[in-house]
Amino acid sequence: MKFLKCLLFAFVLIWGFLTTHTVKADEWITPGEEHFYIIGGVFLPSFDTSARVDDENIGIGSDIDLQDDLGVDKEQTTFYGNAYWRLFPRHRIGVGYFQFKDEGSKKAQRDLQIGDEIYPAGAKLSSEFTFEIFPIHYSYSFVKREKMEFAGTVGLHWYRINFEVAASASLGDLDANAKNSAEANAPLPLLGLSFRYNFTPKWTAGIHGEVFGLDMGDFDGSLMNLTARTEYWFFNHMGAGIALNWFRLDVEVDSNDWSGELEYKYWGPQIYITVRF
């Protein structure tokens, strides 16, 4: 909610600036010629998440489906934002942020080993899973024409992942306050391609993709991220868009705070407002 308030405040400031500093002769901004480009919207994804937390003394942990085993919601609504600065006609810098926070509560249907705790079948478990992404990247347009733009992207996705499970009742030898958590933080490389086509000065569509293998510090695996979007500019400086995003992170984690595996997948629509000047 705090992020949403900041986003709305930013739009108010931008709109105030735009209404008091008009473009010369109110010239229509051609797609690809904007200096600043800001997106803020709502993301309604569907999740499929599995995790494993090992312990050096007990051994390999249980493979856990967060939705089926822990009752975490499969669908969620979250807010996100992106901002781009076109330094030169073919050069752009972009940053963004969004967070998914899932909570669940369910009785264990089987014995589950999570880290150094074993939760027996019948124990009531509560869980929380937080996934944050802060991308920062640079894009260069190999092809830039009036109707289309094709670019390559390099940069970093900074990930913060936190997984917590707690037992709310005593059962057998399990302590009522038994709790375990695992956390991973890492800047992972971002390599991708994007293509945008301008049907008219007011209507554009594009696709962006990042697909690569990871072998970075605590992470070893793969990441795939694909987004298709279309936008319509109702006004010179403000428009709206819809997008469909598919993401998959499949990694082995080996750090002091988490040893195990994570498979995190989501896909769903995005609805957003965009401002440019």
Explain what you see.
Helix content is 9%, strand content 64%. Strand 13 and strand 14 form a beta hairpin. The chain has helices at residues 2-20, 66-70, and strands spanning 36-43, 46-53, 64-65, 78-88, 91-107, 112-114, 117-119, 124-144, 148-167, 179-198, 203-216, 219-232, 238-254, 259-276. Strands 1-4-5-8-9-10-11-12-13-14 form a ten-stranded antiparallel barrel. It has a single domain, classed as OMPT-like (Lipocalin, Beta Barrel), CATH 2.40.128. The longest helix has 19 residues, at 2-20. Mean pLDDT is 85; it is low at 1-5 and 20-25. 26% of the residues are buried. It has 277 residues and is mainly beta. It contains two helices and 14 strands.
